[in-house]
Task: structure prediction
Amino acid sequence: MGRRPTGQVIEKQTREGRVFALRFRAYGQRHYLTLGGADEGWTRQKAEVELTNVLADVRRGIWRPPEPEPAPEPPRDPTFHEFASEWFDAKRRELRPSTVAAYEWEITHLLLPFFHRHRLSQITVEQVDRYRQSMVREREQGRRLSNETINKSLTRLAQILEVAVEYDLIARNPAAGKRRRLKVERPQRSYLDRSDQIASLLDAAGELDAEARSDYANLGRRATVATLLFAGLRIGELCALRWRDVDLAAGRLTVGQAKTDAGVREIDLLPGLRDELADHKARAQAAHPDGYVFATAAGGQQNPSNIRTRILAKAIERANERRAEQELTPLPDHLTPHSLRRTFASLLFALGRSAPEVMDQLGHTDPKLTLRIYARAMRRDPGENERLQALAGASFWAPMGTGAQTGDETPPAPDPPTNQNPRHSRGSTDGRGWARTSDLSRVKRALSH
Result:
């Protein structure tokens, strides 16, 4: 027979007041059970009654020691590597492939080498500043890192840490705000703003078409350059363009895949570009609706780097050679496909389009760039707008906002240039006055009328 349970009431005087507890034996072990203080209603008599009840439960074998309160879980404090990986895995499903690649490079090659062992709570404003300074030092040691690249990585860091704030993992975002960013000089935006420059580039591309080997003769270098100049497509939009997107009869070009939602748009084809595309289509090997407008020799989709290096760069080089022969200044430095997109915006202003209309044709969401081009376009030499209209074959196309839309008589168009292209007979033009030439001097004379 087991030992009879016994116990006693313990009464202690503490700074908080009188406290009562029980000390007793149960199941062969000593136990101590705190009841409470006098301010909670406990008295000696009430404690004696509770001891009697406890000992009775022990005798019946139903008493159980009170469960200890679970220890509070420590707050979650993952490493930056863990949290950034989770953030990127969730975010990548929302982004375009090119944006995913950019984010991955910034996180993998810039942020993680510095922060991968930091816990989120250890990333302070001071640590962010140290990261920025380390990037500057690496650049001084020869690593190719611009201020803009470093700032983009800081923006990515701020994006990641902002989610940590929302999850209550950190109290504030130490990478937020522009004070952490490096100063970035505004880049010089290049584009062609004169008719003779545009004519030089088009003629040079036409010459390259004429000189190309038979298997590369149908790449349409001139048509490619003309589309960049007179439709303002981004390089990715140009490479993805298919013949089903080009409605030559209606004079429209549809961009169905674009960088932004605003980029999905319809572009009004200038008459000159429409004729260039019609000529290019007649020569294309794969002119069916699913065929790429600017395809490779095998009919596949062009690579953007091929457009930049094998078409545009070579056309610029040839154009500068011809301009040097004519004792003309070379084309602006650092011309890119995006430079020709800005050229298109400038040309639209020459044709009388308003800033909202230009934004619509370009698929712009930010009016700042459009208005900067507008301000520069207003500083052209007298008569240059008319020469640009003639070069674009816009003689038969009434600009929006002109008298042609209000019922007034359309002003007479300038005489079309009588140009030639190596692909055509000398002096040939089409019915719209969209001239083709390899003789820049003839273009200049015609445009000076």
About this structure: The longest strand covers residues 17-26. Residues 235 and 330 are 24 Å apart (CA to CA).
